[in-house]
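Good day; I would like, with your permission, to put a structural problem before you. What I wish to show you is a protein chain and, alongside it, a tokenised description of its three-dimensional fold. Please examine both parts with care and let me know of anything in them that strikes you as inconsistent. Thank you for your consideration; the sequence and its tokens are set out here:

***
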Amino acid sequence: MSRQAKRKQKPQLIQWRLRVVVGAVLLLFFCLMARAAYIQVIEPDMLRQQSDMRSLRTTSREVQRGLITDRNGEMLAVSVPVRAVIADPKEVIEKNGFADMRRWQALADILHQPVDQLVARVKENPNRRFIYLARQVTPAVGDYIKNLKIKGIGQRAESRRYYPAGEITAQVIGITNIDDVGIEGLERNYNDWLTGTPSKEKVRKSRDGHVVERLDTVQEGERPNDLVLSIDQRIQQLAYRELKRATEMNQATAGSAVVIDVHTGEVLAMVNTPSYNPNSRESLQPFRMRNKALTDTFEPGSTIKPFVMAAALEAGVVNDSDLVNTSPGWMRIGGRQVRDSRNYGEMSLAKILVKSSNVGISKLALAMPVEQLLGTYYSMGLGNYSGINLTGENAGLIREQHRWSDFERATLSFGYGLTATPLQLARMYATLGAGGVLRPVSILKLKKVPEGEQVLDPQVARDVMNMLVGVTESGGTATQAHIEGYPVAGKTGTSRKAVAGGYGDDYVALFAGVAPVHNPRLAIAVVIDEPKGDRYYGGDVAAPVFASVMAGSLQMLNVEPISQQQKLQLVAAGGKAE
């Protein structure tokens, strides 16, 4: 072919190639346009859905648990911010997160875990997207872990409950679990009240997890509620200190004390020993966590005698000026013997209580129908719940039977054959101090005083209170419960503990009372379980605790001491036994 022919073919080839390229570009453009039309017009929802699956998330704003405070605003339970350390095993493995094992060693050290176990947990299931490595670490630890910059390791905000009062209020307040859910005490009873509802939002997140757009509110949250208790932390602390000292000094197994406001029925203190530290969960023991003041029962012994006296006065079987012959210091009932510590001869009603005469009180119990005595016990709250509405409360036990022997009736009068809790005992004495008005017990601070029920004649209640004054005066069984300036109406009790087949050699020492008698303000019950040694009587073991707690509490509440003139009037009214 000649050169001229070749020159003519070259432009034609270029034009052909150009047409092919332009055609290809136009075809590609057409395909793109068709694809775009298909995506945007015919099938737009599918891609939107795939996009949303990658970027749309529902997030929740966590709310901290409500506060628990005492009646004066003192913090008893508060939530503090902490963090959870989490891992995404799939991301760790895909991004070669194990490349620098020095960082993993540092992570294991700060979490106090063996590095081999930590790594094994992450490698155990490489397809998982979430596991916890540690819970409730402090913000400082969280910041340290963040600075390690280990791929696939992240953190979540959470909260941990802190109890400023520690062991002093442990059994009353209770605890929460690691997920901040109440599992004991008030934390459990009022879990729904204290727990708010987190708000939920629909957001769009970037690939690195940051929120780029807030789209909608899925659920409105609810703020948590605070809980204000009737407890006065000053009195609670005083009661715990004195109770702990007494149980340790007397090598007792346990102890409980309850302080109730006579006028309202509010619990100002409720303490138990041994206790536990709710801020340290490593070695929790179930028996230490139990609120024994309302779960454990005992036979109340001689602390029940004032209510037998009240029942006898109300039944009209005796007058406040009558004398009861207790000679020769013992009496035989149905082949069994009831004894006093010595022969007291003829005794006034006040002296029966001051000397704690079993013979005298048994004669009063036998002079009235057993239904009268049991009815008084029931009306004072025995065998029934107190109204405190706490999980685990024990109602105590009064036997129900159609026929009672004389000896069984006698033992009922000095506190055997029935059981009560320390809370019930304190409530009974509060009812006595309130002029025979029984009120429900409250662990929450009340805005309005409940009406209550008149279960005892007011004059009878005053007469019995005056009779009990001599118990703490010279010649009584509880001189160690005497408080200068604040006359006490109280009663000791020392009951043997029941065992299989009878009674053993262990005792429960008790003291319960009201003060001041001329203007009752507080009722306190103290129970010491199984004191060791020769000093196991209520007057020696429980009475000093009562005196310290009552004296300190009345001073804290600015209760005015009795004047000399008032004291003389009280003695004249029968407050001191002859």
Observations:
- The longest helix spans residues 3-42.
